[in-house]
Specification:
Layout: E1 8-10, H1 15-25, E2 27-31, H2 36-52, E3 65-68, H3 71-74, H4 76-82, H5 85-95, E4 102-112, H6 143-151, E5 155-161, E6 173-174, E7 193-194, E8 202-206, E9 211-212, E10 222-231, H7 240-243, H8 246-249, H9 254-260
Helix pairs in contact: 1-5
Bound molecules: 2-oxoglutaric acid.
2-oxoglutaric acid (AKG) binds next to strand 9.
Length: 311
């Protein structure tokens, strides 16, 4: 593997130029992407949720790390970031060769606490299939799926620094140029670079690049806002219909509703039949956001209470 540096670019770099770097390196840092006032709003929205979040409890997620999700339901300022036009343009440019529609895949604030050890290097596309397994994950390798994943780019991620990101406090460690290595290769330590950034700067990285959270040997928390996008025809990692259910999604920006999954994802992906009222035809997902759609209730015997039972 040819050793590469982690490239840094201004926030207004055209998406075609960024997509080229991402294609080659799998990662790039955008400097000062978010204004200080937007950053302050994100922090204000998230702080109570981050403070209350319990620690992860597994080898992959860490034992001194907290992961605060459901950010589209919880934070107006995170919603603004998720549909920021420069980001959406980049998502469309980079993932466009592999899909016609795109969706949110993960939304998480990741806080690495003092004393946390380094996360195992991984590729985020392993959410669908992987050859190298974390010790605590049930092995479910599908070789066909694993091969398919090597032939496409299914995912594009952003990690916005909410605190300083330093080598000492657990900045994401990433191996630029590692996108085409075999899944089971041991990526050498020297290939990894700490994505050091100031609050407001952002690491953009693909589902194919090896990376992981660094060890936090400092006395301070490292907090990053992670928003991932995926092609519209694969299942979301973080189930957005549950993390941001229709009661909340109905009041959001239509573009965000679409990214959450409340829109058809292809010629016939994602339609549904409202359980009530009886008699409805197949509906596009947006229908679930309309007022007046009955909340289904079950009778004691487990059958749906239709309201059209005979007395
Ligand atoms: O927090 C980070 O820097 C990276 C986290 C990560 O890669 C993950 O949890 O999949």
């Amino acid at each position: 593997m040819k050793q590469r540096e982690l490239q840094t670019r201004p926030a207004d770099t055209p998406s075609n130029d960024l997509a080229e770097i991402l294609e080659r390196d799998g990662c790039v840092v955008l400097e000062d992407f978010v204004s200080q006032s937007h950053l302050a709003s994100i922090n204000r929205d998230l702080q109570p949720f981050i403070d209350a979040t319990m620690r992860s409890k597994n080898n992959f997620g860490g034992f001194k790390t907290t992961r605060t999700g459901a950010l589209m339901a919880r934070s107006p300022a995170c919603r603004d970031l998720a549909i920021e036009p420069r980001i959406l343009k980049l998502v469309e440019t980079f993932l466009g060769p592999y899909a016609n529609t795109f969706q949110l895949h993960v939304t998480q604030a990741i806080r690495v606490l003092p004393g946390e050890t380094a996360q195992m290097p991984h590729r985020d596309r392993w959410a669908w299939s992987q050859l190298q397994l974390p010790p605590d994950v049930e092995p479910r390798v599908n070789p066909v799926l694993a091969k398919l994943m090597t032939e496409i780019e299914p995912q594009l991620n952003l990690m916005l620094a909410l605190t300083e990101f330093t080598a000492a406090n657990g900045a994401t460690r990433i191996a630029p140029g590692s996108t085409r290595l075999a899944d089971d290769v041991q990526v050498p330590e020297e290939a990894f670079v700490a994505a050091e950034m100031s609050p407001g700067s952002m690491l953009i990285f693909t589902g194919s690049v090896f990376h992981g959270a660094g060890a936090n040997t400092s006395q301070e928390d490292r907090i990053g806002l992670n928003i991932d996008y995926a092609v519209g025809w694969l299942r979301q990692e973080d189930n957005q219909y549950l993390s941001c259910p229709p009661e909340i999604a109905k009041d959001l920006d239509p573009k965000l509703q679409e990214l959450l999954g409340y829109a058809v994802g292809g010629p016939s992906l994602g339609y549904f039949t409202p359980p009530l009222p009886a008699g409805e035809d197949l509906c596009p997902p947006q229908r679930a956001l309309e007022d007046g759609l009955a909340t289904p209730k079950l009778k004691p015997d487990g059958q749906l209470l239709t309201g059209i039972e005979k007395n």
